[in-house]
Design brief:
Layout: H1 3-11, E1 14-21, E2 27-34, H2 36-47, E3 53-59, E4 62-71, H3 73-83, E5 87-98, E6 105-108, E7 115-123, E8 139-150
Parallel strand pairs: 4-7
Antiparallel strand pairs: 1-2, 3-4, 5-6, 5-8, 7-8
């Protein structure tokens, strides 16, 4: 693509960008405002379980990014069945606690010594009735696999 084609392509997704220079004349991206239509599509894909996001998690004292997405219980069962063809996987539901100082919701899970976290999952209720939609909450879980058990097919 030439420069104008690249600019036109980027303009389909981005509304405005704030860029600043530091003392060494390096450009610093301060803020990006994506177009509403683009954000709505991403949210629609995420809610449908089509789009995953990178979720930062603390494992021990180290921050890692894992894949995260939204699924219903049927999709979760299919995913686990497929993964279990190659790995010995486990699913652990996470429970919320509230940090008393910051009032933030904390989800905790400590992987076992021979397990590695591979995915964070928000499990959406299958049925959403219009009257009670505010009362229905997602549950959250972690999918892990045993690092010492690669299954042979």
């Amino acid at each position: 693509m030439d420069k104008s084609e690249k600019q036109e392509f980027i303009a389909k997704f981005i509304d405005t960008i704030e860029i600043k220079k530091d003392s060494k004349s390096n450009l610093i991206l301060e803020k990006i405002n994506f177009r509403n239509g683009f954000i709505r599509q991403l949210v629609k894909f995420y809610d449908a379980g089509i789009f995953d996001v990178a979720v930062p998690v603390m494992v021990g004292n180290k921050e890692e990014c894992i894949k995260g997405g939204r699924m219903n219980e049927e999709q979760l069962d299919k995913y686990l069945s497929k993964m279990n063809e190659h790995f010995e996987t486990s699913f652990y539901e996470m429970y919320e606690t509230i940090d008393e100082e910051t009032n933030e919701v904390i989800l905790e899970y400590q992987p076992k010594e021979n397990e590695k976290i591979i995915r964070f999952v928000a499990i959406s209720p299958k049925e959403k009735f219009p009257i009670a939609v505010d009362n229905i909450k997602d549950t959250y879980g972690i999918i892990s696999y045993k690092t010492n058990k690669l299954l042979e097919n």
